[in-house]
Amino acid sequence: MNSRQRTTNAIFGKSVDRPPCVPLIDISYAAAVAGIDVSQCFLDPAKHAEALAEVLQRHPEIDGLSVNISLDDEIMLRRTTKKDRHIVQTTGGLTWNIPFNDIGSVKETEIKSFDDPRIDEDDPFSPGITNTLRAIPPGVRNNYFINAGVTGAFSQVAFLMGLENVMLASVDNPPGLLGAVEKRLPFALRWIENMAELDPAGIWIGEGVASASLISPDTYRKFVLPFEQVLFDRLRQLKIPGILHICGRLDGILDIIPESRCDCLELDWQVDIAEAAKCIGDQVALKGNLNTSILVQSDEREIRTLSRNTIEKASQAGGFILSSGCCLGRDTPPENVDAMAMATVDYRENKKEPGFFNCFD
What we know:
Blueprint: H1 3-11, H2 27-34, H3 38-43, H4 45-58, E1 64-67, E2 76-81, E3 85-90, E4 94-99, E5 105-109, H5 118-121, H6 126-135, H7 138-143, E6 145-151, H8 153-161, H9 163-172, H10 174-196, E7 202-206, H11 217-223, H12 225-238, E8 242-245, E9 264-266, H13 273-280, E10 285-290, H14 292-297, H15 300-313, E11 320-324, H16 334-350
Parallel strand pairs: 1-6, 6-7, 7-8, 8-9, 9-10, 10-11
Antiparallel strand pairs: 2-3, 3-4, 4-5
C-alpha cells in the first residue's frame, strides 16, 4: 500500500495499514526545505514543483502534500523587483506584493464593479497551480497523495474585488455578488478539468474566505454552498477525491458541510476535531488539524503526543488524515514534521490487532 492508496482509502473509510499523515505543506515550508527563496517558488511553477519533490525526499514517512496558489509567467503583465520585494501586476487587475523569501498577497485590486468584463474573462489563479502539478514527476504523483488546489468561485471574487467589497456586497448588493460568483464558476470547473488530465490524487476546493470568522451561515448557504456542490459533483463524476478547505472557524456551518458533497473536510486548528467527528464524521472524512504555531514552537516529543491525541480525538470519524490545521510556516522545524509522521507509525505499532485495520473504529 503506497501513500496515495493509503490516503485515498482513509478518505473513503476503507482499510489502511496506518493513519495517513498529509501535512498541509505548500510553498513556504517546501522552499525552506529545498533551500530555495520562497518568493522564487511563488513566481516559478518549476521551482515550486522542485521544492515539493524535495520535501518528500526529506520526509519519506509523510503520505503527501498540497499544491497551493502561485503565479505563472502567462498571467503576469508587469514585474518589478525592488530592494526587498517583487511587485507583480497580473491579469484580473491584481497587483501582488511578494517579499523576498515569503509568499505573495494581493496588494491592490482594480475591479470595482460587478460589470467589469475581467470578471468574465480573466483567469489569474489556475495557471500557477496547474503548471506546478504538471512539473511534479509522474512517479511522485503516482505514489503520493498530491492534493492540488482550486480556488472556489466565491473566494475568486474576493481575490478579484477585495474581501471588504465582497462582504459589503453580500448585504448591499446580493444580486450583483451572486452574479459575479456565477461568472467565476466556469473558471473553477475548467481548472478541475485541466488538472484532471494530470491525474491528481485529490483536488481541494479552497474557500478560505467562507470562514465563520468572516461570513454568516446565511451568506455561506446563499453564495458558497451551491457552487461547492457543482464542483464536488464534477469531481465525483471524474472519480477524484474532493477535499474542502475553509479557513478558521466553522460555527453555524459545520453541520451543513456534508451538503457540499465533499468527500473530506480539511479543518483549521480553531475547530474542535472531536466535535467535528461527532457531528459529521459519519458523513465525510476529516483532515487536520494541528495548530501551525504550535508546530513551530514545540519540540518533537510534544508534537508526537499532540498528533497521537489528535488521532484519538478523531476516532468517531469514518475516515481521518492527520494534518496541520493550515499551511505549514517557513520556520517549522523539520523534526516536528517527522514527529507527526512517526505518530501514525506509533499508532500502527501500538494497535493490537494484526494486519490492516480501519484506524477510526
